[in-house]
């Protein structure tokens, strides 16, 4: 598994640096445009909140981007932090490759 070495940028930082500041908008004005509370947007901009699917749709519409753009930023940020927050996931053993590539349906006695 390839891991990013550099900490990914939080989507809130991108909202602030690429949209809020250049457009001379206040958090209140942007929140009203997005149809969310000032507190919700403030948490994201201050990197204490995450981009949800709903917020990704709103941001995509407001800034002529895609929801995937915002969700991928959040996913990359979350995965990076999860990877450094705990090393427990590294103890998981991979299933043998031959077990992963079969096309037969599971038999009724297997637990899914």
Descriptive notes:
It is a single chain. By secondary structure, the chain is mostly helical. The protein has a domain at 11-85: 434 Repressor (Amino-terminal Domain) (Orthogonal Bundle). The chain has 6 helices and no strands. It has helices at 11-20, 27-34, 38-45, 53-63, 67-85, 97-100. The chain is elongated, with a radius of gyration of 20 Å.
Please give a quick description of this structure.
The chain is mostly helical. It has a domain at 11-85: lambda repressor-like DNA-binding domains (434 Repressor (Amino-terminal Domain)).
- General form: elongated
User: Main beta sheet: strand number and arrangement?
Assistant: none
Low-confidence stretches: none
Beta-strand residue percentage: under 5%
CATH architecture of the domain at 11-85: Orthogonal Bundle
DSSP summary: helix tally = 6
How many β-strands, per DSSP? Answer: 0
- Rounded to an integer, what's the Rg over CA atoms? 20 Å
N-to-C SSE string, H for helix and E for strand: HHHHHH
Structural class: mainly alpha
Write the layout of secondary structure elements.
Layout lengths: L10 H10 L6 H8 L3 H8 L7 H11 L3 H19 L11 H4 L12
Characteristic key phrases:
434 Repressor (Amino-terminal Domain); single chain; about 110 residues; elongated; 6 helices; mainly alpha
């Amino acid at each position: 598994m390839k891991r990013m070495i550099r900490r990914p940028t939080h989507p809130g930082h991108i909202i602030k640096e690429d949209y809020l500041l250049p457009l001379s908008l206040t958090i209140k004005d942007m929140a009203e445009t997005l149809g969310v509370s000032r507190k919700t947007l403030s948490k994201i901009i201050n990197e204490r909140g995450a981009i949800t699917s709903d917020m990704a749709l709103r941001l995509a519409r407001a800034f002529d981007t895609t929801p995937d753009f915002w969700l991928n930023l959040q996913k990359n940020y979350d995965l990076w932090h999860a990877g450094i927050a705990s090393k427990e996931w590294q103890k998981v053993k991979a299933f043998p490759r031959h077990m992963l590539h079969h096309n037969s349906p599971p038999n009724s006695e297997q637990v899914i």
